[in-house]
Structure formats: C-alpha cells, structure tokens
Amino acid sequence: MNEEPLIKVLIVDDDEDIVMVLKDFFEGLEQNNKLSIVTSSVADDAKEKLREVQPDVLITDILIPGADGYQLAEIAKQVNANCYVTIISGKSNNENNPIINNYLKKPFEFEKFESLVNEMINYVINCRSVTIVKEAH
Question: Could you tell me the mean pLDDT of each successive run of 10 residues in the chain, 137 residues long?
C-alpha cells in the first residue's frame, strides 16, 4: 500500500513568535502526521527553502527583510504551480492577485485560521487527485 506523501508547509514571517505559534498550531492538528512543517524568518533563507522543499502550502508575511511576500509567492508558484499561497499581514489587503489564494489579516482568530488550514489541506489533496487522474490517462 502506497503511503500518501506529506503535505509540505513553509511558514515565513520575520516575527519569530508568529512563526512558532503557527508551527505549534500545525503540529497540534489531528492530521499532523501528514504534514511537514518548515519555517523561516529571513528572505534569503525562505527563498532557498522554497526551491529546496517545493512546498504545497506557503504562509508568508508581506514584509520580510530582503523581500516581500509577493516575491516569495512567485517563487513558490515557479517550483510548485499548485502551491496554496496565503499572505498574512497587519494591513488589510483587497488586492486581487491571481497567485495569492488567500489573505489573512493580523491579528487573526484561530478559528478562522483553522478553517483556512482545512481549506489549504483540501486544496492540496484535490490538486494531487487531479494530477493522478491526468497521469492515468
């Protein structure tokens, strides 16, 4: 029986407290054995991890020293076209950017974040299912 591949999540924020809270949240999920969580708080390191890990999910702040969340989102989509990208920011953002799947304004309620995490996981699973069907034909 083939084991389902891990869902790779990259969390990027220059506020290391936020990174740790989000990482702890993911690790506390029931399906955490299906997740691989990688974190970064510096742009150059985040860019390297994007290319190395090729995450299924990117959660990033807009403002990271040395880059911005949009630049990281572009790299994420280059290495994994199906990467689910969520921008988190203290500023509200109504921008309609086609490479961003979701925006989350800080501070956020964990109920809203939990709902978003479920959406991310379902998105990744659905993308993988579509890819498997395409490969079978």
Answer: 75 93 86 86 95 96 89 95 92 75 86 89 87 52
Give the start-to-end residue ranges of the domains of the chain.
7-136
| 11, 41 contact by CB (below 8 A) | no
For residue range 90-123, what is the model confidence (pLDDT) as tens digits? 876 656 788 999 988 888 888 888 889 989 989 9
CATH of span 7-136: 3.40.50.2300
Q: Is the dihedral of CA 6, 86, 19, 70 positive or negative?
A: positive
Instruction: Give the C-alpha separation, 63 to 59, whole Å.
Output: 12
Give whole-number Cα distances, 119 to 28, 30, 52, 102, in Å: 17, 15, 24, 10
Q: Which two tokens stand for residue 48?
A: 């390297």
